[in-house]
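Record type: monomer structure entry
Structure origin: computed from sequence
Chain ID: A
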Amino acid sequence: MDPDHEDVYKKNAEDYIGELEGIDQEYENKINDIPEEDRVFMASERAYQYLTERYGFKRRFYMGN
């Protein structure tokens, strides 16, 4: 759509992806410090399923009033 600035967009995308990969690695490092049997993710909704699937948490959902 904007070929004159393609290089800028690609560079920004690479930088952003690099930041996201860094955050992902930090999550993994910190989560791996938690003993596997203690890795429980508790939430009141299922909006965070991606975290439980990606990082190996046991899921517990609170369904109260």
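Annotation 1: The mean pLDDT is 89.
Annotation 2: Residues 6-32 form the longest helix (27 residues).
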